[in-house]
Amino acid sequence: MAIFALADTHLSLSVDKPMDVFGSRWAGYMAKLDKAWRELVNESDTVIIPGDISWAMTLKEAKEDLLYLESLPGKKIISKGNHDYWWDTVKKITEFFAEHGIKTIQLLHNNAYIVENMLVTGTRGWYPEGKNAPADSDFQLVANREVGRLTLSLEAGEKLMSELPAGEAEKIIKCSFIHFPPVYRDYVFREIVDVLHRYKIARCYFGHIHGVYDIPPVRVFEGIEFIPVAADYLDFVPLRITENTEIV
Predict the structure, then answer these.
(1) Of 216, 233, 238, 234, whose CA–CA distance to 225 is shortest?
(2) What is the mean pLDDT of each run of 10 residues along the chain (248 residues)?
(3) In whole angstroms, how far apart are CA 76 and each of 53, 125, 173?
(4) What is the spatial distance between Cα 11 and Cα 18, in angstroms, rounded to a whole number?
(5) What domains are defined for the chain?
(6) Burial bucket for residue 218 (CB in 10 Å: 0-12, 13-18, 19+)
(7) 0.85 cut: is pTM over it?
(8) Crossing angle for the helix pair 63-71 and 90-99, to the nearest 10 degrees
(9) 59 Cβ partners below 8 Å, 6+ apart?
């Protein structure tokens, strides 16, 4: 029962949104993703997808993409990215899943999961102040909201760990999956990093960054491992998460 991560699937079965404009790696990406996923992932495995699941604008429009994701082997834990405009309330998405027989997809939103020996927490995150954020956005308002959502997720994780049998919590690797990178090149989203420290998160997996392939597969910042899992960075091959990471 393995655990994988792969962000930014950018599925577009119901909308015309070619991704090859973002670079040659995106040419034929759906076929590459499908082949790699089916070769690597078994039904008993779990794949965590931290954001940018589908280009759909509404939940109804996302139906074909979500049914496709359902058809792939394994369980999936998905969270929201900046392009997931289809994302509705948890209640509405859960009802939509039930209506359409979607049983292998779970939402990561103000909650947490324990999968094998991993604590899975996370949120969408946000742009660092002054860097590429939409001009009409209130940076501090959105940043505070995302910090709050991450805190809720981590508190839910602490509760799950407190319910484990004696001695089992020490075996758990505490991870967060955040669509926007809290640490990237020369910038740091200080508020998010401080929350990760507060809850003793060991690893943070992130997506969002496209067309950049020269960043290391693992970067340690203030004792936390930051690991990029954007689909094109991984060449559309889900990253298997192991107990030890190879730090470059």
Answers:
(1) 216
(2) 96 85 88 97 98 97 98 98 96 98 98 97 86 75 95 98 93 97 93 97 96 95 98 97 69
(3) 11, 20, 19
(4) 10
(5) 3-240 (3.60.21.10)
(6) middle
(7) yes
(8) 70
(9) 86, 87, 88, 92, 93, 96
